């Protein structure tokens, strides 16, 4: 569809239907939107849009409502996304930055996203498999035990305790910690095993047993297969959209209880600033053909270490939803980068 006026008519139908939940007629478009044409011209444009499958008449003598394809064209042709006010940005930043740890950050982010969009919100925990080493810490806990702490740039922390057959030499532990950080900081966790190969041989023979044990522990921590987990909030918002999801609400709620489904909904975007929108039948998850998913990756750099998004009826405020999802993703990434 290349006709600018028809695109304007489609936009008017989408915006009015999202706002009112009532089929949109030609007269209301003329009254509410300054398109500079008569109702008869608008009716001709609506007929053309209907032939293209972008709008549909739900029943005789009614106005028109958008189809999934109509929403797709509307989203793809969005000229602008609603900007957040400085007060809104400050509120998001303050709310997220006051979190005390990663669990608290994720919990706050999912609740905030649900409140901003009035939809069900999903936030995936950062994945270790997409993370890099930020720091390795060795801490003596008693005379014969070392606490090994591996911190990833995603905010994930893995801790292990290493037992020694003899008293731990603090100087050796300090030197090992220094060398580990020199070799590992900034490396992907998948490269940790290769990076520490041969490191034990750089220490005196009588210290190599402890050093080798610590290195094995670090490699194991980096390779830990942590279960991918998604937290959800705001499912009650879906119940409030009963007019949009009268028969499909319960299957949607059932599907949202499955972690595998949530991960599939969030997708596999790899760039942190990449917004993905799947509308109605574009979702490949059973029972999700009546909802739309707006999602984004987030992370401390350009590559996403996890994803977040919202689920709501296809009749949603797409510009506002995109703005909220993008904003929360960016602030989450900044928090991870500053840790």
Explain this structure.
- The strands form 3 sheets. The chain has a 5-stranded antiparallel β-sheet with strand order 7-3-10-9-8, with helices on both faces.
- It has helices spanning about 5-20, 25-30, 40-50, 70-75, 85-95, 100-115, 170-185, 190-195, 210-220, 235-240, 250-255, 260-265, 320-339, and strands spanning about 55, 65, 120-125, 135-140, 145-150, 155-165, 230-235, 275-280, 290-300, 305-315.
- The model has no long low-confidence stretch (mean pLDDT about 85).
- The protein has 13 helices and 10 strands.
- With about 350 residues, the protein is an alpha+beta fold.
- The protein folds into 3 domains: about 5-75, Orthogonal Bundle (Arc Repressor Mutant, subunit A), CATH 1.10.10; about 85-125 and about 230-339, Beta-Lactamase (2-Layer Sandwich), CATH 3.30.450.40; about 130-220, Heat-inducible transcription repressor hrca homolog, domain 3 (Enolase-like, domain 1, 2-Layer Sandwich), CATH 3.30.390.60.
- The protein is elongated and about 90 Å long.
- About 45% of the residues lie in helices and about 15% in strands.
Write the layout of secondary structure elements.
Layout: H1 4-20, H2 26-32, H3 39-51, E1 55-56, E2 65-66, H4 68-76, H5 86-97, H6 102-117, E3 120-124, E4 133-140, E5 145-152, E6 157-163, H7 170-184, H8 192-195, H9 208-222, E7 230-233, H10 235-240, H11 249-255, H12 259-266, E8 275-279, E9 291-298, E10 306-313, H13 318-338
Antiparallel strand pairs: 1-2, 3-7, 3-10, 4-5, 5-6, 8-9, 9-10
Helix pairs in contact: 1-3, 2-3, 5-6, 5-13, 6-13
